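During the no-cost extension, the postdoctoral fellow (Dr. R.K.) reprocessed legacy sequence entries with the updated structure-token encoder. One reprocessed record is reproduced below for audit purposes.
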Amino acid sequence: MLYGAIEAGGTKFVCAVGNEKLDIIEKVNFTTLSPKETMPQVISFFKKYETQLSSIAIGSFGPIDICPDSKTYGYITSTPKISWQNFDFIGYLKTKLKEMPLYWTTDVNAAAYGEYIDGHGQGYSSVVYYTVGTGIGGGALQNGKFIEGFSHPEMGHMIVRNHPNDYFKGNCPYHQNCLEGMAAGPAIEKRIGIKGQDLPEDHPFWEIEAFYVAQCIYNTTMMFSPDIIILGGGVMKQVHLQTKIHHEFKKIMNNYVDLPPIEKYIVFPKLGDQAGIIGCLGLAKKIASF
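Re-encoded structure tokens follow.
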């Protein structure tokens, strides 16, 4: 049996086919353009495996409609990417591919699930995953199920307090000082004029970045008390940030609660950039067994 995976990112799409062991048989990626330009590439990739595929799971940028009873279930809804607003992603796949189970969730939920089944989240009942990159999003799992209600969480838009040495007003059009507006990649570049990937390790901004991410972890700890918090995304490829984040988090927490060892509690992904696609394959396998 083969399973399909679509990691639909705001910048890049990744499509893959894997087997029962979740080994990737083939994978492709391409730039996220408009639906008219992007989706035919998705269909073209899966068509050659269509008769062998048991299911496909999609982890998409959002916001998305995840409520099965909604008229717009399977849609990308109020995204800032104008050409994708109110796009019927699931409906499109159903018209182009044979009938099969489709699993629909956010891209960060997919990454969280990947780490849960095959990464640092293995063996834990409560796992939280954040991606810090072009945007910031979070996904949470409790006993293998995503924590969600009327919609999926938008953890990246939690409000954070400004660092004493940071006078940036924020980059989010909705909230002046939410986490994404203060700490995502575009906020770094808008504030400093340089992409985060080009900032040297000793640049003073990294202390500020760690301060905001530490607040995110503090809030998450107070709300969920998860077993582990995993930090992924392009900004977190700055390996030196891990120590800075640990330091800032300990200051904010101020020994209020007993925690697991911090080097095991706040970690970077074991699966790296593969977390989302492995998570999608795992979700596709899961839904095919129902």
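DSSP finds nine helices and twelve strands in the chain. The longest strand covers residues 24-31. The remaining legacy entries will be reprocessed before the final report is submitted.
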